Amino acid sequence: MKLLGTNTSPYVRKTRLVLLEKRIPHDYVIDPPREPGSLVVRVNPLGRIPSLILNDETCVFDSAVIAEYADTLNDKPILIPRNDAKARMRVKRWEALADGIMDSAVVVRTESIRPAGKQETDIILLHNNAITRSLSHTSEMLGSHEWCEGDCITLADLALVSALIYLDLRQAERDWRNAHPNLASWFVRMSERASVRTTMEA
Ligand SMILES: N[C@@H](CCC(=O)N[C@@H](CS)C(=O)NCC(=O)O)C(=O)O
To answer: How far, in Å, is the centroid of ligand 1 from the Cα of 147?
Structure first.
């Protein structure tokens, strides 16, 4: 299978982390969807990344669907609990929270690079406030636990670390580490994982 993406996209990072953690063989192909000749628009009508092309040429999108599909391919490790409905819901809710932080950060980024007079400052504020609230919520939920959900790594951890790496990239001025020291120490541990390091390198 082939994963189309770019190194800056947080949604792509999340799916790369899933494939790497589960050791699912794949080719990672950098393919910015807006560049002429991009394969993305030919395989995914939405023209978005990540797009995962299976060996039978089926295209899987978006990142939540890719993560869920990949998780069914083996159980080493199981990243989305299978039998405990509440635990499964909580992992998917963590993912929704992390994806929502990414969504808001993308909106803020898109607005911020428009010419000063054309920026929608109220939209920027709305989304920055959503990120701030979500980080507080995240920090409270994590508490002093080692993992976001249960006693081992899940999709929740992979989604959250992807959102935080994107915040560091696009909102370096946001001092979330001082505001939430528990998130900061969890992040340090996550950053040491081989999968995360691989996505930071290339
Ligand atoms: N909800 C989607 C969001 C994917 C998304 O919006 N990706 C962005 C890149 S971060 C994209 O492909 N945008 C289209 C473009 O850049 O032209 C997912 O989780 O996969």
So the answer is: 27
CA of 176 to the centre of ligand 1 (A): 24
- Find the residues whose C-beta lies inside 6 A of ligand 1: 9, 11, 33-34, 47-50, 62-64, 99, 106
Please state the pTM of the whole predicted model.
0.98
Q: How far away, in angstroms, is 62 Cα from ligand 1 center?
A: 8
What pLDDT sits at residue 99? Answer: 98
In this structure, which CATH number among 1.20.1050.10, 2.40.100.10, 2.30.30.40, 3.30.428.70 belongs to the domain 85-193?
1.20.1050.10
Is CATH 3.40.30.10 the classification given to domain 2-73? yes
Q: Which residues contact 193 (CB under 8 A, 6 or more apart)?
A: 21
Domain ranges of the chain: 2-73, 85-193
pLDDT tens readout for residues 38-70: 999 999 999 999 999 999 999 999 999 999 999
